[in-house]
Design goal:
The protein contains 1 helix and 5 strands, in the order E-E-E-E-H-E. With 81 residues, the protein is mainly beta. The chain has a domain of 54 residues. The strands form 2 sheets. The chain has a 3-stranded antiparallel β-sheet. The protein is elongated, with a radius of gyration of 23 Å. The termini are far apart.
Length: 81
């Protein structure tokens, strides 16, 4: 995976925003884009995009879910035996 700062410059008559891999870029403002190495190379060849600060990116590991609490809220409802 790659991460880069991408700036979109809208061509005349085109939309002022562009969505690139889940990031909405606004005309003239930079945004962070994360994508595959192949996609990053493709983005670098699009004239309306300025791609800078390309670096390797490793997504953080998923957070572990906390164990269930052992309290009265987790006990079955109803009459005690």
């Amino acid at each position: 995976m790659k991460k880069a700062t991408v700036t979109y410059t809208a061509p005349k008559g085109e939309a002022k925003t562009a969505e690139i891999h889940g990031t909405i870029l606004v005309d003239g403002k930079a945004g962070e884009v994360i994508c595959s190495e192949t996609e990053m190379a493709r983005l670098q060849n699009i004239p309306a995009l300025k791609v800078a600060s390309v670096s390797d990116y490793t997504p953080p590991p998923p957070k572990a879910e906390p164990p269930p609490k052992d309290d009265d809220n987790n006990k079955p409802k109803g009459k005690a035996a």
